[in-house]
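Teaching note: in complex prediction, the entire set of molecules is handled at once rather than each chain in isolation. The prompt given to students was simply: 'Predict the structure of this complex.' The entities are:
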Amino acid sequence: MAKLALLLLFALPLLLSLTSLLPLPCNAFSVDRPTDRRLLVLVDDLAIRSSHSRFFSSLQARGYDLDLRHADDPGLALRRYGQYLYDGLILFSPSVQRFGGSLDLAAVLDFVDAGHDLILAADSSTSDLIREIATECGVDFDEASGLDPAAMVIDHTSYAVSETEGDHTLIASDDFIKSDVILGDKKIEAPVLFRGIGHSLNTANSLVLKVLPASPAAYSANPLMKLSSPPSLTGSAISLVSIVQARNNARILITGSLDMFSNRFLKSGVQKAGRSIKHKKSGNEQFVTEISKWVFHERGHLKAVNVRHHKVGETNEPSMYRINDDLEYSVEIYEWSGSSWEPYVADDVQVQFYMMSPYVLKTLATDHKGLYSTSFKVPDVYGVFQFKVEHQKLGYTSLSLSKQIPVRPFRHNEYERFITTAFPYYGASFSTMVAFFIFSIVYLYNK
Amino acid sequence: MFRKALILTVADAFSNPEMIKGWRGQNTEDGFCGNQLLGMAKSNTSDAKVLIRSLRSAYAATPISLKIIDLYVVYAITTAVIQVVYMGIVGSFPFNSFLSGVLSCVGTAVLAVCLRIQVNKENKEFKDLPPERAFADFVLCNLVLHLVIMNFLG
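The expected output is the structure of the full assembly:
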């Protein structure tokens, strides 16, 4: 007995130290709390820790647990024993040729395929590895900069005014995507500073979209060289910042400028060329904060609960409807605000009563407390139907609900009887019977 | 079956030799050659009159039992026609009722015509079949028909 107590005494500190090593499960991404918690930040120069400290500290202030590592750290791993160690990945390592540890292109793509989020920032020294990750996400960084490593986005009309004339690679852009869910309710007043490489969107990819397109006068070239041939990327085909929301609701942010997250750009004042207003502070801080909120699911994440349907005047959900029944359908939809589930308010949520094609398509009415409901008549067609809600809206996670429900025809005893219109037919049928009876008698006894 | 019945009715009329003689005599008297167009039309009307008259007189010779059957068939067809006209006016809504109403009349008429073929003495095809047996078949078929009609009436 004493030996056992002694053993426990030794084992207890060991056990405690082991549990402290394991990440706490309550911090993880979950359906109830969809915001990411643990982020892995990869840098190719540890100086970024101090040069981009404002961005990192704003993330930490919002409750994120940052793990900042050098990109070729040999101990890098996104998953261990089949469990992901992180909920989001920030790649601030444009020049890395190979990641350290078990991390590679496939591991990053698997991470996104598992529903996790990614921020990727490049600059003019972007390596093939980073380009490949971007290509897999539907974004092609300017190819020319591969041959000519110094190619950057140049814009002679919407550059940021500075003391020296400069080469107009520091772009001030304020042509943001018009979406409150992606960039927040508050309008970004000051232009955003950008210095880096441009990218184009893969036209075959319908999920990627420009958040910050370049102006029509922009082009991509080496600012130090004379242009000998027309630039491959010009005008609004160039995207400065793009986002992707994958079909599994994983969110990706891709930008060609690592500098736009830096303290220098966040603090700097800005005056756009051709305008008299000189902003004390650039729009970068608001822009990167708001868009990182979107990427890490602090906004625009929807959930649907309590899907209910029943006949008008009843409360129980039937296992089957009859043709021409009147029914009521309701669903509750909430949006995650970063800390709690708030009612989602929209006037374009629709329900389909679907069998191969929608027989009924109705817009749901909302009570502004999250409840959406409508009522309609089951069509005069029987078969196996589905209630479908397919809600896809810019910036919001896609909502896809379907619930199967059979619809049966009238039973034999449910048809209407003694229809007034049919009385002549009844009369005719009975009169032929009577006629048959009379005929038989007359025929047999006519001798 | 209908066709056969019609042929037999006409055959009844032709079995009267007097009628055929009269009809021939009329025709030869007028003659088709050397007459004016008006006279030709006149002769056609009178031909039709003669034909109808001779058919009527021939039909008068038909046995009374066959005449009862004919009356029964006429009644059934009239009822069916009335129902079709009614459906044309009010629409086809209780379509099953309409079908059973019309089909009961049509079925009755068909069965009655079949009975008529079988009990007609002139018809040599069924000379081995006793009329009692034919009537029993007719009754059985009618029972089945009306059972179906009742089920389908709605």
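Point out the following to students. Residues 382 and 407 of chain A are 5 Å apart (CA to CA). Chain A touches chain B through 21 residues (CB under 8 Å).
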